[in-house]
Prior knowledge:
Strand content: under 5%
Structural class: mainly alpha
Shape: elongated
Distance between the termini: 51 Å
Number of helices: 5
Helix content: over 70%
Order of helices and strands: HHHHH
Amino acid sequence: MRRVYYTYALSITLHPMLWRGVFLGAATVLLGQWLHVASIFNNVLATPVGTIPQYIADATLNAATHGEILMLLTLTAAGIVGLSSLYRLWQCVHPHNSFTHSLS
């Protein structure tokens, strides 16, 4: 019976979604320490609606030029992992929808 427990524990620890969740949790904690979320929302709400994409691009460029590379790398990696997690969940919900189906 011990082998069954070991196999179950290994299957849980080696599952990719577990590691995506661990990484996203760690990235959330790190970004929460580096960024003040309330001031980000206040700054975005203070900008005119049409200039929000330009404001975000300028803020990202400003962070990159002022040495906040680790924060940008964490944000980029968390975004990639988040998108891949959403894609995997979408595949689980819609298993028959794939890009290889023909129209006929």
